[in-house]
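Annex B. Sample input.
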Amino acid sequence: MAHIDIYLSPLSPYSYLAGTRAAEIAETHGAQITYKPLDVMGLFSRTGGTPPKDRHPSRQAYRLQELRRQSARTGLPLNEKPMFWPTNPAPACYALISAQKAGGGDLAGLVAALGRAVWAEERDIAEARVIRAALEANGFDPDLADKGMLSAAEEYARNLEDAVSAGVFGVPFYIVDGSERFWGQDRLDDLDLHLSGKL
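Annex B, continued. Sample output.
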């Protein structure tokens, strides 16, 4: 059975635009997923990337065009300049880590809900009420927003170290069985083909 590590951040519009497709692909092929939320700004600084606000104006303009096109392509609404971006993603990521450990809910739905809160709903994922609502809507105990925070914080930091060691430099990033890498939501078709044995 294949295993997919998914490195992501709800601060990334591309993590949001991936929707639940990776989980659907994994289910089709009987693969398992481990979500690894991380500090994407920390990842940029560790791997030679540049935060969007510091990029050349031509790169910033292209990014906005690409977001518009990818939003239309996926059918997911997206505000190119959301009200609460950037914000502190750590509390939402801690909740995701805790939910993954607890099990019993729709983890892919939770990932999508946290991204949607930022990129389509103008909500601040640093706020407990937003996190609790996303947890509850996806079948998790909303109190997970406040439980196991120390352990989750340690895992969140460890995910960044794991990402750097694994050759991750952006999100979403998919690694199959520790070796085959796919960067970006626009590579999900390739991930599907790889798991089909065609690529």
